[in-house]
Each structure stands twice: as structure tokens, then as C-alpha cells.
Design a protein that fits this description.
By secondary structure, the chain is α/β, with parallel strands linked by helices. The chain folds into 3 domains: about 325 residues, ABC transporter transmembrane region fold; about 160 residues, Rossmann fold; about 70 residues, P-loop containing nucleotide triphosphate hydrolases (Rossmann fold). A 6-stranded mixed beta sheet has the order 6-7-8-3-9-10, sandwiched between helices. The chain has a 4-stranded antiparallel beta sheet with strand order 2-1-4-5, covered by helices on one side. It is elongated and about 120 Å long.
Length: about 600
């Protein structure tokens, strides 16, 4: 089992080689420097021998000076080689780590929304940050250490045999005992490393959720309980880390004990041979130098082996992300989208759908609806009727189980995903703002827009006045999720973004439901500008806001149960009449 674990760890790390391949030139220079340093290090042993035999034993100052001069030159060359080796390998680690982080983010941003509903954001962020940083340490430091010490180990063993065969056999007798704990402890370290990274991710997830909902936590005075709960998460992570550290410490301690026990035996035998005149003091000194070099290399390799096992856990988690295929794919040969002269902007044909998390529960059932270009359609119905699901189908966050969605007479699945979404603008009930300034948040609708175009969009959205009153105007930082703005101000920023995008199809999801009367007036005025000459679908529970729509579509339990104007549905549908009676009665 232990023998199988090592290949498995290395196999897990193999995909990382693909990220190193673009930098083979730098890798070649770094490895050349590494070989150079290893050769110089081995040469120092011979310089030690000359210092002892030609200097101390021979008692010759000139020969001592010459030997020390040679040693100094070798040390200088080793320092220069080490500089290039360290710089290039560290650069490589940082570069590859950045490339992996970019590749993981590129994959994440293309994944379907349901993936993020099923996986914790803290866990994903831990992989994107902590795991890639760990791999950076492995590539930039541990790999270099492993290769350097492997070369030193091999070269040192060769020099040991050249110097003295009998003493070499004594040193070698301890190597099998060194390898054994590496194999035994290594498998356990890898397992615990994966567990440790998972528990750290849990800590980040829990902390992120509490900080994100800090107002709720404080309003319910749950601070003491949350401190205790977070303490349990931290302790769980520490307990796993403690086990991992204990295994690694045991591995390193066992290697050091066994290696230096072998060296002590060698020194006793070698010292006896010097006293008997069988070998010179210089030979023993050189042998001790090489033996310590071999022992140090083995000790370092055992430590690096633990790091490799830990890196394998990180690589495994990252490769899991990179291997996830987006559920929504572009057509192999995308159709071209033509909007001019097309009478029908949206067509839903026998549309049936259920969410992946609830496959047995239909969210939409045989929906058939055609929306003319420039028409305003209101979607109404009780919660869970399927209104928001229809929006998600139009933006192709999901594909239907049966039927199809068409925009401008082209099946949505036949179009290039980005091109189709570019024609659709969404103004949600809870506007999403980024932790940046006003310029960035409005320009998100059209990245290449000029400042003048951004300001014009803000004016149409009735946002220019309050933006100008901010401390730095359009350069004002809005805080996380726009926390420095009121609900109505956030909504108008989102509308300005949609105006700047200038989509052919507009989706309004309860855009005014959470606002006070004054803010609603401003936002509704902005929406009227935005809706002008556009195909618009509106989700609204407040029926007073949609009674002037061209048509109202009544949904219930994923089905269309009525279509018509306000007055028609009052007569045709008991459900619509009941909804109106409840709302208008409450309004009175």
C-alpha cells in the first residue's frame, strides 16, 4: 500500500508539469546552475583534504595558503551559482503559481451557476489561494532543494567510495533504515495534508459567511456563540495540522537519528584507522565532509518528501477544479444573430426544465410564449411559479430538459454564448455592485465606454446628481457590495450599467419592490428611459407596477395559466383576481 502511495502522489503532481513547460529555457539554466553548485560542493571536500594533509599535517604555510585560496575560490563560485539557481527557481515557482491560479479562475468563471450552489465559496477560494501558494513553495523551493540534494547525495556517495570503500559501506548500511520511515510516514503525511487543507477551507468559509452577514449576527446578539463556533472550527483545523506536523517531525527525527548514528560508527572506525596509519587525517576529514553532505542531503530529502506529499494534496484539489467541465457549452459552429427586421424577439417552445439539485421537481412545464420586438411583458404569479427560472433560461444559465428558447428566431443553444448574453440586460431586485469606484461599476456594462458615455448613462438613470455629491464623485469607492449607498442609489447604478450596455432584451426582476416611495419614483423614471424601444420582461409581485404592460403572463407551479391585459385577466383568472384583491385591499 505504501509503495502504491508514492507513485500516486507523483502522478497527482504530473499535470503541474504542463504549467512548467512554457519556461523550459529558464528551467534549463536553473538546472545547469544547480549541477554547477553540486559539482563545486563536492570539490570542496577535496579542498578540505588538501588543507589538512598539505597544510596542517605537512605544517607548510605556503601549501596551507594555496589550499585555503582554492577553497575560497570554490566557495565564491558556489555562492554565484546558488544565486542564479535560487533566483530562477523562485521566479519559476511564482510564475507557475500565478499561471495555475489564473487557469483555475478562468475555469471557475466559466462554470454554470449550479456549481456554486453546490460548492462552498470559501472552499473554492481556499483552493484558488492557499493551494496555489503551497504549489509555488514546492516548485520554487522544494523542487530545487530535492534536485540539489539528490545530486549531492549521488555525488557524495561516489566520492565516499573513491575516498574509502570500507567506511562507505558502513555509511551505506544505514540508508535502508532511512528510506523505511520516509515510506511509512509519507503516506500518512499526504492524507493528513489533504485533511488539513480541507479544514482550513472550512475555517475560511465559516468566517466569510459570518463577516458577510455581520449585521444579522450583531442584531441578534450572537457574537458570543459565533466566537465559540468559530473557535471549534479553528481547533478542528489545528488538530489535523498537529497530527500532520507530528508525522513530519517524526519522519525528520528518525532520519537524523539513523543517519548520524551511521556517521558516528564511521568516525569510530575511521579514527581507529588514522591512529593505525591505514588512512591519512586528510582522507578522514574529506570522508567526514562527504558523509555529512550525504547525511544532510538525506535529511533534506526526507523533509522535501513530506512537502511533496502535502503538495500532492493541494494539486489534487486544484486538478479537481480544472477538470470540471462547464455544463453550458458553445455550439461547435455558432449561428449568427440577426436582429434587424425580426418581429419576434423571444420565443419559448414547449419549454420544460427542472433544477439539477431537484431533478424530480419540474420548475417549468411545457411553456409556450412568443414576445414581439419592443413588447413589454409582465410575469406575475405566486412565489415558486417559475418567473425567475424563465429569466435564468433566457440568460442560458441552464439548458432546458425539453423544448427550446429562441431569441430573434435563433435557438439560444445554437448561438455563441457571449454574443447571446450581450443582447440581454438584467436589473435584479438586489443589485450587485463591485468593491470599486462608480466608474468601474457603471462601465461594467461596456468596458470600452468613455467617461462621457458613463456620465450620460448615469444621467438617464437619475444617478448623476447623487454620484456628483459623493466625496470623490465618480471616483468614489463604494465599499463591498456598494455598502456605502442606499438601496435606491444602488439600483440606479445598476440601471445606469444596463443603459450603457444597451441590450436588445431587458429583464427586470422586482427592480422596485424593496424601495421606499421616493426612491421608487426615481428608479421607475430611470426604468422608463431604459425600457424605451426595448423588448422588456418584468417580474413583479406588486401588480400596480405592471398593469400598463402590453401583456401580462400569469404563472403558477411552472405553467402559464393565463395571458392578457390587466382587465382581461381580472375576468379570466380567479388566481389573478385574488392576487389583485389582496394587494389593492392591503394598499387601501
Amino acid at each position: 500500500m505504501a509503495d502504491e502511495e508514492k507513485p500516486r502522489a507523483l502522478h497527482t503532481l504530473l499535470p503541474i508539469v504542463g504549467f512548467v513547460r512554457p519556461y523550459t529555457g529558464r528551467v534549463a539554466i536553473a538546472i545547469t546552475a544547480l549541477f554547477f553548485v553540486a559539482a563545486i560542493s563536492l570539490s570542496i571536500g577535496q579542498a578540505v583534504k588538501r588543507v589538512i594533509d598539505d597544510g596542517f599535517v605537512a605544517q607548510s604555510e605556503s601549501q596551507l595558503a594555496t589550499a585555503l585560496g582554492v577553497m575560497t575560490a570554490l566557495i565564491l563560485l558556489m555562492a554565484v551559482g546558488t544565486f542564479f539557481r535560487f533566483y530562477l527557481m523562485s521566479w519559476l515557482g511564482e510564475r507557475v503559481s500565478a499561471d495555475i491560479r489564473q487557469a483555475v479562475f478562468d475555469r471557475l468563471i466559466e462554470l454554470h451557476p449550479s456549481y456554486f450552489e453546490e460548492n462552498l465559496s470559501g472552499e473554492i477560494m481556499s483552493r484558488l489561494t492557499t493551494d496555489t501558494t503551497l504549489l509555488q513553495s514546492i516548485i520554487g523551493s522544494s523542487f530545487s532543494l530535492a534536485l540539489r540534494n539528490a545530486l549531492t547525495l549521488i555525488g557524495g556517495l561516489i566520492m565516499l567510495f573513491i575516498t574509502n570503500i570500507k567506511l562507505s559501506l558502513i555509511v551505506l548500511s544505514g540508508i535502508p533504515f532511512v528510506i523505511l520511515p520516509m515510506v511509512l510516514f509519507g503516506r500518512r503525511v499526504r492524507t493528513l495534508s489533504r485533511q488539513s487543507q480541507d479544514t482550513v477551507a472550512d475555517v475560511g468559509t465559516y468566517a466569510g459567511e459570518i463577516i458577510h452577514n455581520i449585521k444579522v449576527v450583531q442584531s441578534y446578539t450572537r457574537e458570543p456563540e459565533e466566537k465559540i463556533a468559530f473557535g471549534k472550527e479553528v481547533t478542528a483545523a489545528f488538530d489535523v495540522a498537529k497530527k500532520r506536523i507530528r508525522q513530519r517531525a517524526s519522519l525528520i527525527a528518525a532520519v537524523i537519528l539513523l543517519v548520524f548514528t551511521a556517521i558516528s560508527m564511521m568516525l569510530w572506525v575511521g579514527g581507529t584507522d588514522v591512529l593505525r596509519g591505514n588512512i591519512t587525517a586528510g582522507e578522514l576529514g574529506a570522508f567526514v565532509f562527504y558523509a555529512i553532505m550525504v547525511a544532510t542531503s538525506l535529511g533534506t530529502l526526507s523533509e522535501v518528501y513530506g512537502e511533496v506529499q502535502r503538495a500532492a494534496g493541494a494539486a489534487e484539489r486544484l486538478m479537481e477544479l480544472l477538470s470540471v467541465e462547464p455544463a453550458i457549452q458553445n455550439a461547435s459552429v455558432p449561428a449568427s444573430l440577426q436582429m434587424k427586421g425580426v418581429d419576434t424577439a423571444i420565443e419559448l417552445v414547449n419549454l420544460t426544465f427542472s433544477y439539477p439539485s431537484r431533478p424530480d421537481q419540474l420548475a417549468l412545464r411545457s411553456i409556450n410564449l412568443a414576445v414581439k420586438s419592443g413588447e413589454t411583458i409582465a410575469l406575475v404569479g405566486p412565489s415558486g411559479a417559475g418567473k425567475t427560472t424563465l429569466f435564468e433560461m433566457l440568460e442560458r444559465f441552464y439548458d432546458p430538459a425539453e423544448g427550446e428558447v429562441k431569441i430573434f428566431n435563433k435557438p439560444l443553444q445554437s448561438l455563441k454564448l457571449q454574443e447571446a448574453r450581450q443582447q440581454i440586460g438584467l436589473v435584479p431586485q438586489q443589485p450587485v455592485l463591485f468593491s470599486a469606484d462608480v466608474w468601474h461599476n457603471i462601465r461594467y456594462g461596456k468596458p470600452d465606454a468613455t467617461d462621457e458615455q458613463v456620465i450620460a448613462a448615469a444621467k438617464k438613470a437619475h444617478a448623476h446628481e447623487f454620484i456628483s455629491a459623493l466625496p470623490q464623485g465618480y471616483a468614489s469607492y463604494l465599499g463591498e457590495q456598494g455598502v456605502r449607498l442606499s438601496g435606491g442609489q444602488k439600483q440606479r447604478i445598476a440601471i445606469a450599467r444596463a443603459i450603457l450596455k444597451d441590450p436588445a432584451i431587458l429583464l427586470l426582476d422586482e427592480a422596485t419592490s424593496a424601495l421606499d416611495a421616493e426612491s421608487e419614483q426615481h428608479v421607475q423614471a430611470a426604468l422608463n428611459v431604459l425600457m424605451l424601444n426595448r423588448t422588456t420582461l418584468i417580474i413583479a409581485h406588486r401588480l400596480a407596477t405592471v398593469i400598463h404592460a402590453d401583456r401580462i403572463v400569469l404563472l403558477d407551479q411552472g405553467q402559464i395559466i393565463g395571458v392578457g391585459r390587466h382587465e382581461e385577466l381580472l375576468v379570466q383568472s380567479s388566481l389573478y383576481k385574488r392576487l389583485c384583491d389582496l394587494q389593492f385591499k392591503n394598499a387601501d
